[in-house]
Amino acid sequence: MVALNDLNDLLLEQLRDLYNAEAQLTKALPKMAKAAKNPELKQAFQDHLAQTEEHVNRLEQVFESLGERAKGKTCHAMKGLIEEGKEAIDEEAMDSVRDAALIAAAQRVEHYEIAGYGTVRTYAERLGHKEAAELLQQTLDEEGETDKLLTQIAETCVNELAEAGVEEE
After folding, report:
1. pTM: predicted TM-score of the whole model, two decimal places
2. Which of 60, 69, 88, 122 has the highest count of CB atoms within 10 angstroms of its CB?
3. Domains of the chain
4. C-alpha span between 127 and 142 (Å, rounded)
């Protein structure tokens, strides 16, 4: 366990957590994409995988801007969120209902990331790490856009099909 003596120590600890969270997500998203039957949802997961890989690269830039080596620490929260996504994949359910469950699991992940990136961006700003704050804001914006896209997919087709108990068309 690392001693947290000031806000900078906390910033680094939180960045390490996010770095590991994003790495875990790069392994989970292909499985979610494969399980999704709705073409828009499948594409959203595939696109978010590429974006998540960029988030990992961006976090490496953040560490570099802070004069630190990029390394992660196990993010137990993301482990749990991914396990919930795995449960959605493994459920015996109609395709449309599974897709709705996948969206729910993915949005929990997005909300976790939004909270994490908002926090570290604020710390970086407070500590005068302008470059890091800008990079973190960019990722925060992208996580918010992904969350909105998932809501749109749910509201425009998936939830309606799931409600009616209808398979994907």
Report:
1. 0.93
2. 88
3. 7-164 (1.20.1260.10)
4. 23
